[in-house]
Specification:
With 455 residues, the protein is of the alpha/beta class. Helix content is 46%, strand content 18%. A hairpin with a 4-residue loop joins strand 4 and strand 5. It binds guanosine-5'-triphosphate and magnesium ion (MG).
Length: 455
């Protein structure tokens, strides 16, 4: 990627709308705008961050393309760090294409996906963790995820990593001083140990949030399983508040898995209705039941549905046995009907699995069920301080953790300080990699390629 050229892209989604924005960034952004804009003043003559009204024209045939508002932002205090121009035009597919085409003809290059943000990162306006947060903000599915993404964009995670890095740097200087001036600096291994413990617990604290981050980003999978006709599809519909799945009194109504997204306390959850478990009748049902079993394997939470108006069967028992080691909730459904199941013997076989009583038909217990799912998904309430660790952050932080664990062992073994210093530097490098200070180009390319064009 060449950095001193000028890039352009349509930053709004392709389609028809009130307005669209075409963006330019780079050293020639303002002079390119001068060439294609007619107004009372030239873009290069207006003061920083001002807006002018005028027309975009094609200098080749002097044809007017559109009435626009043009904003001039002079570097280095811009999104990318370079001079930027934003053209607000009418929101038409052809208009935006035409304006972009003229900009490209007059010296700009088409921006790669995420290139504006990549420039912001490379010019030091933001670090890599903040750059990643830009897309987290764009793709946030729930309010909680958005709140955490914005906090990451503002530098919450970055400052936590920087603090850990500083602690580790202090530790490294302690070790190095004892290498360089062994007579002056007494090696206080106890002090080393305390310092190291402090850094490690900060890293471990961050790592603990990785799973929560995954749930928020990718969503949790909640599978509804049970015998046929117990009311699984009715529970899905009740959770969704709409008649999504077909419900009939005929056992074996649901043949295939059916998935829908719901928001449970800020966490996006994919709720999966499955084919009822029984001895399969025919090939289709057989395949459906196989899918149910796969769905159980990949679920974060399983809702085992039991019909309270029927005696507990062997099949119910088998299902409970199969899933009770996982995170599961027993849903005792149809409580509006007279109870026929032997509740006390059922309770004994559950090993403390939570039980929620519902009537999917009347809506009783559905809010309690939602709350219970939320409680299991979140060990604590989402706090503003919670960070959204991505798989990339977690993998690198684990590397840092293992380097520091090795230092702990070396300390115990009274190994030479030089060897410890080597491992501490490895840990420091890893932390730098999270922030993008020492991230290989291929990784950077991979991160930014996931961005939208014009972002
Ligand atoms: N009285 C009562 N009937 C219910 C309740 N929940 C479901 N039903 C009825 O039970 C029957 C089966 O409901 P479904 O939701 O299709 O059950 P399912 O577990 O998805 O069944 P399969 O897809 O065949 O495995 C339907 O007639 C529902 O109206 C409930 O809470 N109370
Ligand atoms: Mg069903």
């Amino acid at each position: 990627m060449i950095l001193n050229d000028t890039i352009a892209a349509i930053s709004t989604p392709v389609g028809y709308g009130g307005i669209s924005i075409v963006r330019l960034s780079g050293k020639d952004a303002i002079s390119i705008a001068d060439n294609i804009f007619i107004g009372k003043v030239k873009p290069s003559s207006i003061s920083n961050r001002n807006i002018i009204y005028g027309k975009i024209f094609d200098p080749e045939d002097n044809r007017i393309i559109d009435d626009v508002l043009l904003i001039v932002m002079k570097g280095p205090r811009t999104y990318t760090g370079d001079d930027m121009v934003e053209i607000n035009c009418h929101g038409g597919v052809l208009i935006t294409k035409k304006i972009l085409e003229i900009l490209l003809r007059y010296g700009a290059r088409l921006a790669e996906p995420g290139e504006f943000t990549k420039r912001a990162f490379l010019s030091g306006r933001i670090d890599l963790v903040q750059a990643e947060a830009v897309m987290e903000v764009v793709f946030a599915k729930t309010d909680t995820e958005l709140k955490l993404a914005v906090s990451q964009l503002e530098g919450n995670l970055s400052s936590q990593i920087t603090e850990i890095k500083e602690l580790l740097l202090q530790f490294l200087s302690l070790i190095e001083a004892s290498v360089d001036f062994p007579e002056d600096v007494g090696v206080d291994r106890k002090e080393f140990g305390t310092h190291l413990h402090k850094v490690l617990s900060r890293i471990e604290h961050l790592l603990r949030t990785a799973d929560e981050g995954r749930l928020l980003r990718e969503g949790a999978k909640v599978s509804i399983v049970g015998r046929t006709n117990v009311g699984k599809s009715s529970i899905l519909n009740a959770l969704l508040s709409e008649e999504r799945a077909i419900v009939t009194p005929i056992p074996g109504t649901t043949r295939d898995t059916l998935e829908e997204w719901i928001n449970i306390g800020g966490i996006p959850a994919k709720v999966v209705d499955t084919a009822g478990l029984r001895k399969a009748r025919g090939l289709i049902e057989h395949k459906g039941i196989k899918r149910t079993k796969d769905s159980i394997k990949s679920a974060d939470i399983i809702l085992i549905v039991i019909d309270s108006a029927r005696p507990i069967s062997k099949e119910d028992g088998k299902i409970i046995e199969k899933v009770k080691k996982k995170k599961a909730i027993l849903v005792l459904n149809k409580i509006d009907l007279p109870r026929k199941c032997n509740f006390s013997s059922l309770k004994k076989s559950l090993d403390g699995l939570p039980i929620i009583e519902t009537s999917a038909i009347c809506g009783t217990g559905i809010d309690t069920l939602r709350n219970e799912i939320k409680n299991i998904l979140t060990h604590h309430r989402w706090e503003y301080e919670t960070v959204l660790l991505t798989a990339r952050h977690a993998a690198i932080l684990k590397r840092a953790k293992w380097s520091l664990k090795r230092v702990q062992t070396l300390l115990k073994e009274k190994a030479p300080e030089e060897i410890m210093a080597f491992e501490v530097r490895e840990g420091l490098n890893a932390l730098g990699e999270v922030l993008g200070e020492s991230t290989p180009d291929e990784i950077l390319d991979k991160i930014f390629s996931k961005f939208c064009i014009g972002k």
